[in-house]
Amino acid sequence: MGFTVECCENCGTLFNYPGFGSKYCPLCREEDTKRRDTVKEFLRSHGNANMYEISLATGIPEKQVKQYLRDGMLEIPEGSPIYIKCECCGCDIRSGRWCPSCAARLSAGTKGSYVSVGEVPRESMGPGKMRFIGRHEKK
Ligand SMILES: [Zn+2]
Ligand SMILES: [Zn+2]
C-alpha cells in the first residue's frame, strides 16, 4: 500500500493519504491531534468520565470523542460506568472497534491485521446489574 490522493473528510482538500488513520489533510490532522491531546489531558487529570462529560468539558462533539475511541487513540478507563461496544458482538470494550475474540475471528478470515482491538473491561457490569447493590429502589 502506498499513498493515494484522497479528499480530506473535514475540509475537502485533496491530499496524499498514507493508507491508514483518519482521512484528514495535514492541516486538519494537526487540529485533530490537538483535540485528541485535549481529551487525553482531560482524562489524565479527571480520571473516569463518560463521553458526555468529556464533550462538555473539552467542547469536542461526542461523536468525535467516540471516533477517537474507535481509532484506538483513546481508551475508556477501567471502572468507567460506560464503555463502547464491539461492532461485531456488542460486548463492552475500552477502545477500538472489536473485542479481542472478534478481532481474532475477523483477522483469521481475511489474514489482515486489525489495529482497532479494544480491551474488554475486567469488571463488565451491564445496565441493571447494580440495581440491588447498596440501596433500595424508590418509586
Ligand atoms: Zn482538511
Ligand atoms: Zn466482539
Q: Summarize this, please?
A:
This protein is mainly α and 139 residues long. The chain has a domain of 86 residues.
Segments where pLDDT lies below 50 for 5+ residues?
126-139
- Overall pLDDT, averaged? 80
Q: Percentage of helical residues? A: 25-40%
How many E-type strands?
Answer: 4
Kindly name the structural category. Answer: mainly alpha
- Strand line-up in the sheet with most strands: 1-2
**Content of β-strand:** 5-15%
Shape: flat
Distance between the termini: 60 Å
Largest sheet: 2 strands, antiparallel
- Please state the CA-atom Rg, rounded to the nearest Å: 18 Å
Spell the H/E element sequence.
EEHHHEEH
Query: What small-molecule ligands were found?
Result: zinc ion
Count of discrete alpha- or pi-helical segments spanning 4 or more residues: 4
Task: Give me some keywords for this one.
mainly alpha; binds zinc ion; 139 residues; 4 strands; 4 helices
General description of the model:
The chain is mainly α. It has a domain at 25-110. The chain contains four helices and four strands. The longest helix has 21 residues, at 26-46. It starts with a strand and ends in a 29-residue tail after the last helix. It binds zinc ion (ZN) (2 copies). One zinc ion binds at residues 8, 10-11, 13, 24-25, 27-28.
